[in-house]
Every structure is written in C-alpha cells, then in structure tokens.
Design brief:
Its cofactor is Zn(2+); Co(2+). This protein has 415 residues and is of the alpha/beta class. The protein folds into two domains: 2-208 and 333-414, Zn peptidases (Aminopeptidase); 210-256 and 264-331, Alpha-Beta Plaits (2-Layer Sandwich), CATH 3.30.70.360. The chain is built from ten helices and 18 strands. A hairpin with a 7-residue loop joins strand 1 and strand 2.
Length: 415
C-alpha cells in the first residue's frame, strides 16, 4: 500500500498545471443562481462535461432539475462514476462539490482582478468561486484521473457529484436528487463534502447548526416626516422590533456547545430597507432579515413562535401596524455524524498518512449539503484545506491546497 500511495501522489503532482488550467476555465463562467437574477449553472455544467467526457469514467449521468428561470429551463446535476475493484458491487464513496457560486458583491473591493477574470499570482488563483467550490471540484476530478491513469481500481467506487443550487438552499440540487431519485443513495454509502475546513487541513466537520432565515415585513402608513402623527412610520416599528427580537433570542437561547465554533447560537440581522427615497418621507413599509444559526438542542419552531408573539405585541403597541414573518430558508439540524464512523476514521487515516497530522472533529454554524445526507442516516463529513476566502472580495484558491487535497481524496478511495 505504501508504494501505491507514493505512485498516486506522484501522479497527482503531474496534473498540477492541468488542475490550474481547469480551475481557471471554470471560474470564467459565472454560475450564479436565478435567485440573484443570473442564469444558473447550465454553461458551467456543459464545460465540465466537455472536460471529462473522454476521461474514462465508467458512467456519467446528468439530472436536470426544472427551473424556468434558469438558462434552458434547467439546473444541471452531474454524477461521474469510477467503479471500485468489485465493479458495481464495490462499497461507494461520494465526493460532492457544487457548481454554483455567490454573486461577486461590491466590484470596487475586487482589487486583484475582476471576479470572473481569474489570474494566477503568488501560488493562488483569484476569482469568484475559486475556493468555493472550484478548488475542491477540480481536486476531486484529478484525484480520480490519477487513479485512472495508473490503471488502479480503488477499494470503493468513487461517485463525483457536481450539483447545482448549494448557495441558495439546494432545492434544485442535492435535495432535488434525493426527492426525485432516491434510488441513487444507499445507507452504507460514505460521503465527503469538501466545502469547508481550515488552513492546516486538520478540521473535519461532523455536525451543523440548524439554519433559519426569516424576513419580517412591516406595514404602516407613509407620511411626510414633518407630520408623523398623520401616519405610522414602519421604519420606527422595525427598529424597535429588530432590537427586541435580537435581545430576546440571545438571552433565551444562550447555551454553549464547545464542539461548535462559535459555541453558541447566533442571531444576526443581515438585510433591511424600505422604499423611502427622501429624508423627509416616513415610510409605510420596511423589512428586515435575520440569519439564525441555532444549536441542535433548540427547536426552530420555538424561535419562530417567539418572533410571532413579539410581532403581536408590537401590533398592539402600534395600532394599525401589520407585521408578517416569512421563512426564507429552514434546515433543522440532523443528528451529527458519529465521531467513530467509518468515513471519519478513513479520512483521519488518509490525512495522517499523507501529512502526518492528527485531524480533529467538530461542528460549524454554516450549512452544507452534508446535512441532507445525515437526514437520510448516511454518515457525511465536510473537509478541505482552505484559507477561508469564500464569499469575500479577492476570493482565491491556493494551488498547493488543491493539489494536496486531491492526493487525500485519491488515497481515501483506496483505504
């Protein structure tokens, strides 16, 4: 096994330039959700299929989730199979990455390059989607390519999944696949989601907090600001409500669990606004959004009920006000992947073999689609080596991380 590991690692190294070029080509395609007014992942999926079509995968499947807002009305999901030593009867390892990226944000803050004009500088590839999730997508591709080139059939069939819609809820991605094609998944599958980690590559995520995004809409009566008694300033109602809800949630749901970082639930007001376009208009409408990341011990229904009860109190205080609460996204945290599960042990072993480092397990506040596998009772872990530049201006992928992670993924399939 030691000799095979050396051969595989050396083969991955040979692909360094290919990996760089592949990531550069993929970054150029802005695969952004229709939720943000873009076309989705169609072009990027087509490019990916063009790249891997003649590689020698045993099977490539494409599942298009219908979405009339997207280019050609679909959100593509691609599965590429490389069979293990027992063919289709081999145990299976999924490596899941996502095709979509977040919008570029404030373009003035991109000082190294434009978001979709990738450049290579000081061992890094800059561009939107470079780290999230291009780095791992490319690493998974060339991990399997190395095995193919050496004629090695791994112990486990490797299923590379490239899915849509991870950044906006997965309704057209992994959740759609699980709902519409449940036969794709088996209880004894092992799952790696390389979509989060740390700079050392020593953190394995086995648990996530529940996620609740709520939009609170306030309605009053627009009026000239010099005569506030003639109307009802929705902005004022929203400010008071937001302050009280923030205080209530932090005080009531204040438990800590050291497996997570941060160890407590978080409740962050993230968006807000109203249609007022002049300083002398007291607006009749306003809305605010809270992003709640909640420890699994708490129920999201309780948090929603608290928000609704507070809304009733505010409506009574401000006669004529109407407050509506809309759930934008909700993911109730499943049971964590056990610390001693097979996928955890194998990944820790692969990291130890290649890097001589002890990887630790823990939980995060961010959501990944590992949660959807855990809901099915399939053990899943989240791991990669990254500088954590995702969603930021000047996002980049470190080339060494991409290459070294490809080695870990390849060895993981052999163990």
């Amino acid at each position: 096994m030691e000799e095979i590991i050396k051969k595989v690692s050396k083969e991955v190294e040979k692909f360094r330039d290919n990996m760089i070029q592949t990531l550069v080509e993929l970054i150029k395609i802005p695969a952004i959700s229709p939720d943000y007014g873009y076309e989705g992942e169609y072009d990027k999926a087509e490019k990916l299929l063009e790249i891997i079509n003649d590689w020698g995968f045993d099977k490539i499947e494409r599942y298009d989730a219908p979405d009339k807002r997207a280019k050609n009305g679909v959100r593509p999901n691609i599965l590429a199979y490389y069979y293990g030593e027992k063919g289709e009867e081999s145990p299976r390892l999924w490596i899941l990455t996502h095709l979509d990226v977040v919008p570029p944000g404030d373009l003035s803050k991109w000082t190294v390059t434009e978001p979709f004009k990738p450049i290579i500088k000081e061992g890094k590839i800059y561009g939107r989607g470079s780290e999230d999730n291009g780095q791992s997508l490319v690493a998974s591709l060339y991990a399997v390519k190395a095995l193919m080139n050496l004629g090695i059939r791994p112990k486990r069939t490797v299923i590379l999944a490239f899915v849509s819609d991870e950044e906006t809820g997965s309704d057209y991605g992994i959740k759609w696949l699980m709902k519409n094609h449940p036969g794709l998944f088996r209880k004894d599958d092992l799952v790696l989601v390389p979509d989060g980690g740390n700079e050392e590559g020593t953190f394995i995520e086995i648990a996530e907090k529940s996620i609740l995004w709520i939009k609170i809409k306030f309605k009053g009566k627009q009026v000239h600001a010099s005569m506030p008694d003639k109307g009802l300033n929705a902005h004022r109602v929203a400010l008071e409500y937001g302050y009280k809800l923030d205080k209530l949630l932090h005080e009531k749901y204040d438990a800590k669990d050291e497996i997570f970082d941060p160890p407590e639930s978080t409740f962050e007001p993230t968006m807000g606004g109203n249609p007022s376009d002049a300083p002398n208009i007291a607006p009749g409408e306003h809305e605010i959004v809270f992003d709640c990341r909640v420890l699994p011990k708490y129920k999201l229904d309780d948090i929603l009920n608290d928000a609704k009860e507070l809304a009733k109190e505010m409506e009574e205080k401000y006669r004529g006000a109407k407050i509506e609460i809309e759930v934008m996204q909700r993911v109730d945290a499943p049971e964590p992947t056990p610390k001693d599960s097979e996928i955890v042990k194998l990944l820790q072993n692969a990291i130890k073999i290649l890097r001589n480092k002890e990887a630790k397990v823990g939980g995060i506040g961010g959501g990944t689609f590992a949660a959807y596998f855990r809901m099915l009772g399939i053990p899943a872990v989240v791991w990669c080596t990254c500088d954590e530049t995702a969603h930021q201006p000047n996002e980049y992928a470190r080339i060494d991380n991409m290459v070294e992670d490809a080695k870990v993924m390849a060895i993981l399939a052999l163990l």
